[in-house]
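User: structure tokens for DUF397 domain-containing protein, please.
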Amino acid sequence: MTDSHVPDKAGLCAGCREQHGREIRWPCLTIELGAVHWTKVDRDSDDCVEVAFLNGGLVALRNSIDPDSPTVAFTPSEWTAFTDAVRAGEFR
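Assistant: Done. Predicted tokens:
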């Protein structure tokens, strides 16, 4: 097992993550994204992202205009790093 394949606290390995259509798969877990509750990040805009908080602390992010487009999935530690970077203005 290499460092890129070490499971995080949720027992998932970011290096093993795959997306197949509307499913995100880790070797030990498959999530059907059509069955989760999505929330718009900015309710006042049609052009934004939607987020879904999943079991085990996983988070999924998708384009609100095209919900069938690829979805970005985060482990808990990845989500924390991503939101910290957004707050710090790293994506401006």
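User: Anything notable?

Assistant: Confidence is low (pLDDT under 50) at residues 1-6.
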